[in-house]
Design a protein that fits this description.
Hypothetical Protein Ychn, Chain: A; globular; Sulfurtransferase complex subunit TusB; 21% strand; alpha/beta; DsrEFH-like; 4 helices; 97 residues; Sulphur_relay_TusB/DsrH
């Protein structure tokens, strides 16, 4: 299953809830303000690493927020083509707001 999270984990509990319900075969795509979770040296990047789930960040959202060069190397940065590929790979999807 592909989970998409759109809100900052510093303002909502969406990412926390998502991490609570994921399985090891799931993947997470962080969009919009959720990309702040991918910054180096923050509690969320550490929490995500512990989960062991594959996490993607949308490059365009990182660029819009001026944080492309501040992303932890654990996360995979993808563009809109990568977003489409993930959507095609995962028939089941869950959006967290």
């Amino acid at each position: 299953m592909l989970h998409t999270v759109t809100t900052s984990p510093f303002h909502t509990q969406s990412l926390q809830s998502c991490l609570r319900y994921i399985s090891q075969d799931d993947e997470i795509l962080l969009l919009q303000d959720a990309v702040f979770a991918g910054l180096r040296e923050n509690i969320w990047s550490k929490t995500i690493k512990i989960s062991g789930v594959k996490i993607y960040l949308l490059k365009e959202d990182l660029m819009a927020r001026g944080i492309v060069d501040k992303v932890d190397e654990y996360f995979e940065v993808i563009d809109y083509s990568g977003f489409v590929s993930l959507s095609v790979q995962h028939e089941a999807q869950m959006k967290w707001e």
